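Lecture 7, part 2: worked example. A protein chain together with magnesium ion.
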Amino acid sequence: MGAGDGGTGLGTLTVAEPCRLSFEGVTKRFGDVIAVDDLTLEVEAGESLVLLGPSGCGKSTALRIMAGLETPTAGVVRIGDRVVNDVDAKDRDVAMVFQSYALYPHLNVRRNIEFPLRSRHVPAEERARLVTSTARSLGLETLLDRKPAQLSGGQRQRVALARAIVRHPRAFLMDEPLSNLDAQLRTEMRAELAELHHRLGVTVLYVTHDQVEAMTMGQRIAVLRDGVLQQVDVPRTVHDRPANAFVAGFIGSPPMNILAGRFDTADGTADGTAEVVVDGGSIPLGPAATAALRRRGLPDVTVGVRPEHLRADPDGTLKVTVALAEYLGYEQHLGCRLPGGGMLTVRLTGTSSALVLGDTLALAVEGDPHLFDPVDGTRIDV
Ligand SMILES: Nc1ncnc2c1ncn2[C@@H]1O[C@H](COP(=O)(O)OP(=O)(O)OP(=O)(O)O)[C@@H](O)[C@H]1O
Ligand SMILES: [Mg+2]
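Predicted complex, written out as structure tokens:
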């Protein structure tokens, strides 16, 4: 590497200052459909934020609004400090990477990567230098003379990324860029992308419906449902303290058990604890959870228990029958039938002997269960 090389792995490139991206009260309607509903969200400069939610929740629409490919019905969109509602897509200086990473099949890797530089009339010498260093940072330097048809899926994906990176945009907008890859490549590329983000410190807004991908790629995760932002926080908080029952059920694998519960507000013990009754069993609550439900004063409550927070315990208050058993070696996933007929997913780790269909066991919940309002789903804070 020549003089002036920084520690970025991108050689002598001057990396554009990353900038923040913000949606302020952004709504997008398509006829009767409200694809994005009053979205207020900011991606900090240099941050990698993942927009997560089920199919049709408005992720791509939000991203396309930021890219300038859709016009919002209402609200303000900013890139850096600049309001860009009326700025053309090509003048926004953000790079978009799509799920389908159409490369030019007749051009080799080098020409594919330098395409955006040519169309910006960057001089040849500068182009060569930029292509070489970008290719090196993505491990493509030995593939520059190949055509896309001579590359694996992951290599093609990297060429598409190189093409986006080479012109040093101020932010990247990525819409499910890995969904065309097989499971193993996807895991590899996820790690590479996360590492690349870490190295370049660029601003990334990344769309996926895959919660595992979101947990890997996002410094923060914004969960959308029907166009409405549900929660935005670091992965750990979204997982450990979901803002509502929807987020609770969407994040985590296998998903959280969500049960209808009843709480007797008059019930309780001398030490201030009580229990919540679910589907023919009960779950004991600590003093804080008991107090929270007493304050609320209503009997119906939605109860959430993560499969990993259930353990076999002879004194457990949930008596279940194994209806489904999946032995994975390092752990077992069980589908257990509660006395009332509902199912509980249980993740058992450790050395307990493998359980089989028809076995009965008692389960205890570790810690307090998650508690949600049964009407609007919001978290009942303990
Ligand atoms: N051009 C359009 N015309 C009409 N409706 C649209 C248009 N684009 C999107 N929609 C609707 O807006 C909603 C949000 O779509 P969007 O593509 O943003 O969802 P998404 O979260 O990206 O979903 P997926 O995970 O399936 O890609 C959907 O109900 C969709 O049908
Ligand atoms: Mg989409």
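The mean pLDDT is 90. Residues 256-372 form a domain with the OB fold (Dihydrolipoamide Acetyltransferase, E2P) fold (CATH 2.40.50.140). Keep this in mind for problem set question 3.
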